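Dear support,

I submitted the protein below through the web form. The confirmation email said the job was done, but the results page showed an empty box. After a refresh the structure appeared. I'm attaching both so you can tell me whether what I see now is the final result or a partial one.
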Amino acid sequence: MARLGLVIDLFGSYLALSTVGIAIATACSEERFSWAAVARRIATFPPFLAIVLALATNHLERPDWIGALLDALEATLTPLALAAVGFALRLDRFAGRVGQLGASLVFRLGVAPLALLMGFAALGWRDDPVARIAVLEMARPPMLGASLIATNHDLEPDLVALLIGLGIPLSLLTAPLWWALSGRV
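What the results page shows now:
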């Protein structure tokens, strides 16, 4: 199931984020829409470049040292990302954002997974591994990659930091519940 989750995450989340997400953020942050600006941002977005490079070189044999290097880098990713979130999280910025924050987290951690779960249940996809992984993906906290894009486009950076900073620990409570529910529907 881990490989299936990786494929869904890579193509379902990061590819969409690297293209459509950047286009929307660029359109929202600039005074006038420019296809050239959107294309430039997409073409220079590191996760998009990583996806393209991985797809282009997937068939090539890699030396063992490259795998060891990537494993070492992977081990630092989560602690660095969480440290960055911690540094950006300013609890004094709650004022005036409680409604937006609550609505966003209720939708992301509750309504969206419930809607997907109900859709799969209506289709009769009980215990289907793709459906269960999709529900778990939907129950995850707001994406760090999306927060970077929003922050880089100056789209409510304080709200974004609060969403990530609170969404991650809350999802540790809600995601296991959605996983358990997805096996019972």
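Response: this is the final, complete result; the empty box was a page-load delay. Residues 22 and 149 are 7 Å apart (CA to CA).
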